[in-house]
Structure formats: structure tokens, C-alpha cells
Amino acid sequence: MYKKSFFSTFFIVIFFVLFSCSYAQTINKLTTIEGVRENELIGYGLVVGLPGTGDSVKQSPFTFQALYNLLHKLGINIPEKNKCLDSKNTASVVVTAKLPPFARSGQKINVEVSSVGNSTSLSGGTLLLTPLLGLDNKIYAIAQGSIPFFNEKKISNIISHRYFIFNSRNNNVAILKNSAIIEKSVDSKFGNKNTINFQLNKPDIIIAQKISDRINFSYKNASFVLNPNIIQLNINKKSYKNIINMISDIEKMFININVNEPKIIVNNRTGLVISNADIKVGSCTIVSKHFSLLIKINKNDLSGCSDQQKFDFLSKKFDNKKIYHNNKLNTVLIKNAVDIHVILSILNKFHITPDEIVSILTSMKDVGALPATLDIRKQ
Fold first, then answer.
1. What's the pLDDT tens digit per position in 24-78?
2. CATH class, range 22-35+188-258
3. Is residue 336 within 8 Å of 329, Cβ to Cβ?
């Protein structure tokens, strides 16, 4: 039997934002500039000061080796075969980050710390100085910071703070805000060429032409559509002396676009679900170890179902007693056309986690029961 309150164990927020058939959007939200992108960084480091929740030397020998090398660099010599360091207050971690375009030396960026050993929690530890490398094996940033300690019994699943993000359901991952300092910037040839390409986030020849027309309205004959994905901007350096101001002006221009395709955004860390339209769900069956959900749009398909299974869940009307008390098999059958928010509201009553939400929506999309684009995000 499930607990009465779902929100006592997990919190999922569902927002459904309904738009009109068209809306205005700025060009910088619809496009990116070719060659201007983030660069991935990675590094190996140590988290120390853990309250007995770190790696075991026997099962994670690389942690001992890393700690041995660190102490040796600091002038502390110990026998390499000495296992006295197995105090479980140290954990090996991989530190990842994204180097923003045009980032300069001295700026700070966020880092994500993930355990690679057998530690049970990184909570309460301190990430030691960790160099972050690019694909060229050069150091672009240095990370260091503290991971606060939490009483997991008294906090919600996602803790967001000004300086960190901690997920109590997975104690071996933490995001430290502004904990890495950029040491080296990436050289960019932006503005050195005679052309700049704007790439649409989603290829669409109609939107591409609208963007080109809007640019040409302010800068005569400055752009043309190269293909459904690219709008090329010709730079006349004599006419447009300040290219940066020109690009900034273009990116702030508004374009009227139509909402052609429904979209659902799911955050698998927080469980947040956002939709841009009413999305009707097709017939399908969802079977879990905790429940069964049958969606049958055709009422003729109900002939083989028992009376106990024939529950009507109309939009925004749910009967908890039918689900928890009169339904021993935890089987819910929907025989009316419903929106996706109805399905998600029912799933919430069965303690569905964010990972399960993502899995269910992805599977519904695969079998053709969810006519919408899925955007799965981690942050």
C-alpha cells in the first residue's frame, strides 16, 4: 500500500504553459552562431574530509595512489605499500565543466563532481585543487571547493543553493557553483571573416527566411538563406565598422513564429515537466511493478475488462479512494481521450520518480502514443 502523501518522499512539479498559435521570439533564442560554442573540460581529483563515506583502498586502489602522489608532492613521504591511509575519508572523483564561448581568464564557472570509486557519499567533503583539461590535453581551468554536509532525513531530494546543487537521492554527484577559475581562454576567430553564419536550433526554411527578411529590413541585402539550417550574414567592414554591435542588434530582433510541434521538457533531476500545448495521448499500456495503466481510446476495446478496471478519469477529476482502496491490483484504465497532464497526474499518485517519468514518456514516444518532441535535461 502506498503512502497517502506522494510529496512526503518526492516532489514533482508539472507546469503546462499554453501558448497561442503564434508568438514572438528573439533571433538569439532561435539560432546559434557557427563556431561559437562551449568546450567540454574534464579532470581527476580527490574529495577529502568525508565522515567515513569515502573509498576503500582494497576496492579502489587508484584512490590510494592519487593520495600517495598528492602527499609526495607536498613533501610528505610514506611507504607506498602502507595501507594506513584506508580511513575512508577520501574519494576519487571526476570533475567536469563547460567552458563558455568568449570566456576570459579569471572568470568562474560551475563544475560537476562525480564519484568514480565505491564511496557512499560526497556530502561534507572538500574537493582539492583539480586541473580541468580540454581535448588538447591543456589546462583551461582549476577547480576547488567544499561540498556541504546535509542531514538527508530532514531535506528534500533536490537542494539548490547559491553556491551548490546537491541531489540527496544520489549522494555521489554534486554541482559546485563558481568553483572553478578559468586559467586560459579559447582563441576565437569571430569577426575576422567576411561572413557569419547563424544556425537554426531546429532547421526550418520558413523561420530561416523570416530571420533573413528581418535582418535585411535593418541592414539592406546583408543576409540570405543558405539552406533550411543556415542564414549567412555578409559583413561589409566599411559599412559596418562595429561588428559586435551589429551582431548584438541582430540577436535582439524579434521574429513571429508558429507553434507547429508540441514539445515536452523533462528535467530528470528535479522531475519538472513542461509542455507547450495540450497533447492528446494515444492508446497504450504502461505496466510497472507497482501499477498498470491502460489507455484505450476506442471504447469497443473495453469488452474484455472487468468492472473493477473500468475507471473513468476525466480531466482534472481523480478519486484517490478508487485508486488506493477499491483497486487491489492498482490497475487504472482510461477510456476517454485525455491530455498528457492527466496521465502525469495519475502517475504522481503512484510515487513515480523522475527517472521513471523519463522512461515512461520515452517509451510512449517510441510506441507512437505521445505525439510530441521530448527534451530530456539534467539541470
1. 889 998 999 988 888 999 999 999 999 989 898 778 888 888 888 888 888 888 7
2. alpha beta
3. no
